[in-house]
Design brief:
The structure holds two protein chains of two kinds.
Chain A: E1 4-7, E2 10-13, E3 19-25, E4 31-38, E5 42-51, E6 54-57, E7 65-70, E8 73-78, E9 87-94, E10 101-103, E11 107-111
Parallel strand pairs in A: 2-11
Antiparallel strand pairs in A: 1-3, 3-8, 4-5, 4-9, 5-6, 7-8, 9-10, 9-11
Chain B: E1 4-6, E2 9-13, E3 18-24, E4 29-37, E5 43-50, E6 55-58, E7 61-66, E8 71-76, E9 85-95, E10 98-103, E11 107-112
Parallel strand pairs in B: 2-11
Antiparallel strand pairs in B: 1-3, 3-8, 4-5, 4-9, 6-7, 7-8, 9-10, 9-11
The chains are: A mainly beta, B mainly beta.
C-alpha cells in the first residue's frame, strides 16, 4: 500500500460545485502539504499543516480550504469550483531530518 | 522571495549523458533536491545535496552544486528510456523548525531510442 494515498484520483465536476479531495498517510509525519501542479508552472503550495491544530496558507490559498482531521488525514476543499482550478493536485508529507517530501499519486480535477 | 528556475525541456539520445541545470536565489538554502515525476505518478525524491557540499555521486547520478553562483546540476550518465520523466529542482531553507521547500518549474527529459 502507498504511504500517501489520495482520493479520488480523477474527478470531473461542474462550475459552482463543492469538491473535497482527501489525503491519508501512514508515514507518521506531522507535516502535511497540498500542492497544485499546472504544466510549465511547477508546484504551487496551497496549504500546509504542522499538526492538527496548525493550519497555514500557502501562496495560492484563495478559493481553497483545508481540514486536518487527524495526524494521518488532511483534506482539501473547493467550496465553489471554477474552471481555472482545473489542475493536478498533490498531497505530501514531510520528514524531519532532510525535509524530504513524500507525495501521493495525485488527484486530477477537471472543472467544466 | 525564493525562486528556482530551470529549463522546461531537454532531449537526449539513449546512451548519452543528460545534464539538467537549475538556478536558485535563496542563499540560506540548507538542502538542494532533485525530484523525479514519471507519467501519471507523484514526485519522488531522486537525490539531494547538503549546501556545504560541492558534489554528490550516486550510481549514474552526479549532482554538482556551485553555491557562489547558486547553480545546481544533475547529470545522468548512460541515459536510458526509463529516465524519461519530469525532473524538478527544489531548494530547502530552514524556516522555524522545518525545511521550507520551493520547487522549480520542472524539466521534461525526453530520451530518444
Amino acid at each position: 500500500d502507498a504511504d500517501v494515498t489520495q482520493t479520488p484520483r480523477n474527478r470531473i465536476t461542474k462550475t459552482g460545485k463543492r469538491i473535497m479531495l482527501e489525503c491519508s498517510q501512514t508515514k507518521g509525519h506531522d507535516r502535511m502539504y497540498w500542492y497544485r501542479q499546472d504544466p510549465g508552472l511547477g508546484l504551487q503550495l496551497i496549504y500546509y499543516s504542522f499538526d492538527v491544530k496548525d493550519i497555514n496558507k500557502g501562496e495560492i490559498s484563495d478559493g481553497y480550504s483545508v481540514s486536518r482531521q487527524a495526524q494521518a488525514k488532511f483534506s482539501l476543499s473547493l467550496e465553489s469550483a471554477i474552471p481555472n482550478q482545473t489542475a493536478l493536485y498533490f498531497c505530501a508529507t514531510q520528514g524531519i531530518n532532510t525535509g524530504e517530501l513524500f507525495f501521493g499519486e495525485g488527484s486530477r480535477l477537471t472543472v467544466l | 522571495g525564493e525562486d528556482v528556475e530551470q529549463s522546461l525541456f531537454l532531449s537526449v539520445r539513449e546512451g548519452d549523458s543528460s545534464v539538467i541545470n537549475c538556478t536558485y536565489t535563496d542563499s540560506s538554502s540548507t538542502y538542494l533536491y532533485w525530484y523525479k515525476q514519471e507519467p501519471g505518478a507523484g514526485l519522488q525524491l531522486l537525490t539531494y545535496i547538503f549546501s556545504n557540499m560541492d558534489m554528490k555521486q550516486d550510481q549514474r547520478l552526479t549532482v554538482l552544486l556551485n553555491k557562489k553562483d547558486k547553480h545546481l546540476s544533475l547529470r545522468i550518465a548512460d541515459t536510458q528510456t526509463g529516465d524519461s520523466a519530469i525532473y524538478f529542482c527544489a531548494e530547502g531553507a530552514r524556516a522555524g523548525g522545518y525545511q521550507k521547500v520551493t520547487f522549480g518549474t520542472g524539466t521534461k527529459l525526453q530520451v530518444i531510442p
